[in-house]
Amino acid sequence: MELSSLLDPRLLLVTGKGGVGKSALAAALALAGARTGRKTCLVEVEGRQTMSRLFGTPPWDFDEREFRPGLWGMSIDPEASLVEYLDMFYGARRISKFVVGNPAVEFATTAAPGIKDVLLIGKVKEMERRRQPDGRFTYDLVVMDAPPTGRIVNFLKAPDATTELVNVGPIRTQAQTLVDLLSDPARTRMQLVTLLEEMPVQETVESVEALEALGVTVGPVLVNRVLADRFPDDAVRKALTDDLQADSLRALLAGAGLEIGADAAQGLLDGGLLHLDRLALQERMRAELDEQLALPRLELPFLHTAEFGADEITELADIVCEVVSP
Amino acid sequence: MSPTSLATARTRSLAGIVARGHVLVCTGTGGVGKTTVAAALAVAAAEQGRRTIVLTIDPARRLAQSLGLAALDNSPRPVEGVAGLDAMMLDMKRTFDEVIDRHAPSVGRSQRIKSNRFYQQLAGSLAGTQEYMAMEKLYDLHQTGIYDLIVIDTPPTRNALDFLDAPRRLTDFLEGRFLRMFLAPGMAAGKLASRAVGFGTGIFMRAASRITGAGVLDDLAQFFQSMDGMYEGFKDRAQAVYRLLQSPGSGFVVVATPDPPALREARYFLQRLAQDGMPTAGLVVNRVTPAPPEGLAALDAAAVRRTAAALEAGGPEQQAAASLLRLHAARRDVAKREGRAVSAALHGVDVPALVEIPLMATDVHDLRGLRLIAAHLIGPRP
User: Fold this and answer.
1) Model confidence, pTM
2) Are residues B308 and B167 in the same domain?
3) What is the value of ipTM here, to two decimals?
4) B52 lies in which domain range?
5) Fewer C-beta neighbours within 10 Å, C or N terminus of chain B?
6) What are the two backbone dihedrals, phi and then psi, of residue B253, each rounded to the nearest 5 degrees?
């Protein structure tokens, strides 16, 4: 697999352990899709308006809206999906009325995760398959800020386990067609997001194994929040680790016109040493990923900015644009 | 929370509840380090001589190993290296089975429920089951009277609020007047669609059996029939747990990272705790960018940049000093971003203590690391 094929599938499910920043990277992938000429839809599930906050737009809902040139966004809500599903299959608007706010439906969509995922992924499949009157696909790329990996694995092990409750009937059939979509390498890839830290790396390795065993194609691994080495020069690094002390640093800065206290000088040194420790951890984790996974990786930098919003997403999207084929 | 009370909260720690509390519930979204915080609090309490147990749901492998939790066996195990500390991993299915055994009026009834396909599905995957079972186990441990302090790590739900809602949702569902209307004894699933209980329900059941197929309704009907008469027991228990959580010896520790989504969840949860009259012990923000020492924080950003630029042309030591200044400036920006996110999350929300744990050089997965975290959680504050 080539890194340049990152945006080639029609459906990308971006997933990873909590706290690794998968939403930000899903947003960056979608923006990169639009900027490389793909009509793209970014899909948020069970969101708390993370995407609309990131892009600084009015809140999103079930309607797809074009919020950047060539980039649409929507927020999937399982109940709205269920209503649409009933309409689609039974033309049953009358049924829909009873469904909304019904406690049994609340149960079906919030309590039994299997059914919920059928509805969520079912909606994404509809978007992926949708065509315009002229026969062309409505979207070239659908990017889903997907549920956590464990749930997707359960869903894929699925139709039997997840839908054991609903062993026959349309949902059962639907679940199978969704598993087919998710395991079609030409159409779908899972994009795992990780950090160069121990638990996220371990979980990523396990997820890749589980997903590949289920016949799903896993795309290049997205490594988020990578620290750039601020002491790449050996002599400079050695000056930090071996030579500089709080006193000498203080004197050196005073010579350059910056007066600081002994505590502050020690603080600067400690900050530098912590940075080196984190770099060493990153190196160990890279080696671990090299050893455990055969997938290409794309590293995205930690952004030392005072804000995190549309500008930062754009910066990350630029990096994606540089590596992908047009 | 006003800026002054935020500053006050920062000076307080969780030392009081660790020394005197009886139940500590750690909650927050996935990936924030809840389990680590729970384990660290438990280590701290045990090392103060309190008989302590930490109940975890799904610990990372290495942390589990360091706690001596090799197997998921639902029974307390002593933690090697910390006297008076037990750890235990929750086995959901087994706990649920125990609950059924306790509430079922006869062994036969209990067997019938446990062999029902719907029950097996429910016990394994129904959202809220983990939370409910964690609460069950908590109550069990409380009832034994063995422990001075029980620290519980909540399941990694995406929505932290599920934890408070789950027991109610599960009992509501099990009680399911709505569903039981259709599933009255003697009512064969096949007849459901044709039997008009009422306009709305008839239509709904037609839709439901179209979606799910009829077989599931049979299982459901059987399940609800078997459960009949047991709901009171469930509800009483849920209420007892709720009261235990509300009592002054209990405390919720909300855990987040400085990421806005995690902090937003923390905010919702803190508000919800206040609404429900639940005692909040504090907010822990894990993995924050370390704040620079005061002398550094006060430095003028432009002067720092100028000095760094001037040093850049020098020898290795000068260049190292320049990089240290730039690193500091970058960190300060991130620390500002994080600080704003924390203030925003706590705007209008009261917390007794706010503990910020700086990002460490490596992941925490052994007792040494847990003691470091514990020092932040209960240690002397600035």
Assistant:
1) 0.84
2) no
3) 0.84
4) 3-185+228-294+334-378
5) C
6) -110, 115
